[in-house]
Amino acid sequence: MSAAPLSGRLALVTGASRGIGRAVADGLHAAGAHVVRLARSLQEGSADRRTDLRCDVTDPRAVERAIGRVLTELGVPDVVVNNAGTFFIKRIEETTPDEFERTIAVNLMGPFLVARALVPHFVQRGTGHLVTIGSVSDHVAYSGSTAYAASKYGLRGMHEVLRQDLSRTGVRTTLVSPGPVDTPMWDAVDPDSKPGFTKRSAMLQAEDVAAAVLYAVTQAPRVDVTEIRLMPTVYTARG
Ligand SMILES: NC(=O)c1ccc[n+]([C@@H]2O[C@H](COP(=O)([O-])OP(=O)(O)OC[C@H]3O[C@@H](n4cnc5c(N)ncnc54)[C@H](OP(=O)(O)O)[C@@H]3O)[C@@H](O)[C@H]2O)c1
C-alpha cells in the first residue's frame, strides 16, 4: 500500500475532539486525507489538510449547517466516520428518562442525521464510505447498559439497513465494534476500582480502532468490509 493511500480524499469524523474519534482523524490525516473533525468543544479553524467545526450532532440544524459548510467549501466527503458517542452504566430503574433520551440522541440520532445529510450525495456520485463506530454492546448484553445497548443495537440495525439499501450503489458501509478502549469515556466509571471490569491497562487503545477504520477504508473499491469486531486479547466478561 502507498504511504498516502487517501491522498486527495476528504474524510469527516464526528466526536473527533478526543478518544477514538481523534485517533481515527489522525490516522486518516496520516494516510493523506483532508480531515474534517466535528465536536462540540473544538475551536473552529482550518490548516494543513485539517478543518475543525463545532457541532452538536444531536441538533438537526447544527448538523445541517456543518454538513452544508463541508459540501460548499470542501465537497462531498469520501469517508464519513460516525463516532461521537456517550456512555454510562446504570440499571434501568436508576436511569432517568433524560439520560435515556440523551444517549439515544448522541449515539443514534446523531449518526442518523449525519448519514441522512450525506448518503444521497454518495449515491449520486456512486462512491462514498460510511463507517459506523458501534461497540461490543451492539451485539452482547452487559448488565446495567440499558440505554447504551439500546442505542448501539439500534445503530447496528441502521447500519444493516443502509448496507442493504446501498448495496447496488457503489457506496460502502462498515460497522466497527470495539470492546473496551482506554479513552476518557471510562473516567466516570473508573473500571480499575471495580471488580469484574477490564482494567484500563488491558483495554484496547484508540489507535487500535483507528487501524481497523484505516483497514476498511483503504481496501480496493470492490471490497466492502461490512463489519470488524475488536476485543482486547485478555478481558473480563464485564467489558
Ligand atoms: N471507549 C470504549 O471503551 C468504547 C468501546 C466501544 C465503542 N466505543 C464508541 O466509540 C465512540 C467514541 O468513544 P470514546 O471512547 O472515544 O469516547 P470519548 O473519549 O468520551 O469521546 C467522545 C467524543 O464524542 C464527542 N461527542 C459527545 N457528544 C457529542 C455531541 N452531542 N455532538 C458532537 N460530538 C459529541 C466528544 O466531543 P465533545 O465533547 O467535544 O463534543 C468526543 O470527541 C463512541 O461512539 C463510543 O460508544 C467506545
Show the helix and strand layout.
Layout: E1 10-14, H1 19-30, E2 34-39, E3 45-47, E4 50-54, H2 60-73, E5 79-82, H3 97-125, E6 129-133, H4 146-165, E7 172-178, H5 206-217, E8 227-230
Parallel strand pairs: 1-2, 1-5, 2-4, 5-6, 6-7, 7-8
Antiparallel strand pairs: 3-4
Helix pairs in contact: 1-5, 2-3, 3-4
The structure holds NADP nicotinamide-adenine-dinucleotide phosphate (NAP).
The site of NADP nicotinamide-adenine-dinucleotide phosphate has 29 residues, from α1.
Using brief descriptors, characterize the structure shown.
Rossmann fold; single chain; 239 residues; globular; alpha/beta; 5 helices
What pattern of helices and strands is seen along the backbone?
Answer: EHEEEHEHEHEHE
Estimated radius of gyration = 17 Å
Determine the structural class based on helices, strands and strand pairing.
alpha/beta
Quaternary class:
single chain
Count of the domains: 1
Biggest sheet features: 8 strands, mixed
Using DSSP, what is the number of strands? 8
What is the tally of helical segments? 5
- The gross shape turns out to be globular
CATH class: Alpha Beta
